[in-house]
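Q: Start with the shorter request: fold the first protein.
A: Done. Sequence, then structure:
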Amino acid sequence: MKEIEQKLKGNIKRLTNKTFKFDERIGDGWFSAVYFLKTKEIAEKVLPNNHVTMQFFQKSNAVLCGTDEAIALVHKFAENPESLEIYSLKDGDKIQPFESVLTISGAYQQFGYLEGIIDGILGRRTSVATNVYNVVKAARTTGVQKPVIFMGDRDDHYTQQAGDGYSAFIGGSTAQATHAMSEWWGIQGMGTMPHAMIQMFRGDVVAASKAYHEIYPNDDLIALVDYNNDVITDALKVARVFGKELKGVRLDTSRTLVDKYFLRNHHLMGTFDPRGVNPELVFALRKALDEEGFDFVNIMVSGGFTEERIKTFEKADVPVDMYGVGGSLLKINIGFTGDNVLLNGQSAAKEGRRYRPNPRLEKVEYHKQ
């Protein structure tokens, strides 16, 4: 895992302000809680010379993400942003509970109404980055890192793809399902065939694979083999036709189905849950491929995989070469809080909160939008 962290650290650079496409209505307060807007107006009219420090933190061990986006937001929509003093950690930094990750100092009316939006940016980005990091970590055993493909395109609104893809990259996944997911960091999306493609060939996986290979001859051929709910039969059919041109097969069996392999081998039933993509099915597929000399064909699994499910597979040494993970990576389980902790240079936080200086914070220079 340290090798991955070092590799990512070497590639992660602060994103520029041009990366982000903000809704211009942010500047009108359209997305800010109304009480922030009222506080802004009161500060302007009653306490125009106030100077506050707002501090942002969360309560978990996590992989930080969203700081560049939050800073760009402030630089674009705050009043006189060049006069603000901002200190921040970087995307990809490991953070601890209650550690200050970002501080902004200036007159409240300059930036205070952006508090909730900043909380939301940091919360979503850090949640996804941390989820991906934990899944990538779970997919590493005996010194080998198995690739994790980020397949979250169908699990949330499409407008979230660029930010979620960047967060997944920060977490350690560089293989992603759409081009939009890599918009902020650079590599195009990847993918082979969906069930819809096989359906157009009336369930003939070999015919679908031939068409794919003809149109995309330079792509790695990875055949989807669960369409007919008979993954071993269809995997062997494709392997026999393509030989070493077949790089892998993907299993995406529904959790409500039992593969036909088990229906043909009733004696195996009763000691495990035979539904969906299960360890016993993967073991049987690996054995069948190897016995016919197709030991070079990789096995990819997808469909409802989570950190815990991957840990279970890895603990049992299930012969999976690659995981495709979607919905579980988009769970928002980390929330950030912004607190005003200093007023005119003096400690002034609500009961239970306090200014938490963090020597790891770096000063952020203003860059004009």
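Q: Next, the second protein, separately.
A: Sequence, then structure:
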Amino acid sequence: MAATQPPARTLLPGVKYVIAVASGKGGVGKSTTAVNLALALAARGAAVGILDADVYGPSLPRMLDIHYQPDAMEEAGNKRILPVEVLGVKAISMGFFMPEATPMVWRGPMVGMAVEQLLRDVEWGTLDYLVVDLPPGTGDAQLTLTQRVPLTGVVIVSTPQDVALADVRKGINMFRKVDVPVLGIIENMSYHLCPNCGHRSDIFSHGGARREAEAAGLHFLGEVPLDQSIREHADSGKPIVITDPQSPQAVQYLEIARLVAERVEAMAATESPFPSIVVE
């Protein structure tokens, strides 16, 4: 008989849960969701970090208004990077180390190696959650990252229209193939309420992500409206969960954080503390 042990989480010994935020395509608000989710988890009293793994298009420096390099420390002859602490979370991004307009012309495996180095060489300390903002899509870079990073689960962000939902199905299938649990789906830009008259417009359709979640047997985590204030706060480096926590949009992010935390804890409670036994 041989006992098989789960893979060791040597990269992140002090991190309890690693939650990826992903999307099948770009432009659906994945990074905005990742930042507000991290801040919403922190608002619930958790110790939270956020890793911007979108090496090709890092958004964290602008969304958190960070325009300087992190500090470093030396420990037993090894240099360690200290994450930037801002708005109650620890943050790291490749965007902290280069000018905003500099392109990253890297192949997928190089992206995986760079992100692994950030995980290994950053002094994350003790965290309840590390939120990882993955690159959009389902290509080689995403596959490499999901294999290198010890993910607890993934949250998928989509807009309601069919062209985005088709890519959500690809993302679900990819994560299932690499044995990463899908915690649920968020519908972003779900609808628009006119700030002047209150008229509702389903600009990108509505309800598609909920139906997709139901069809795939996944949890639907919530819908976030298309709202100018979310964009304005993100562009100014002051996310809406912090600047306007009582707004309907921030309340929705806080509710999503609650559901994600419940899903993660429920999954952890069902995991066996004992290794599986394989008879050879």
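Q: Describe the second briefly.
A: Residues 24 and 166 are 8 Å apart (CA to CA). The mean pLDDT is 84.
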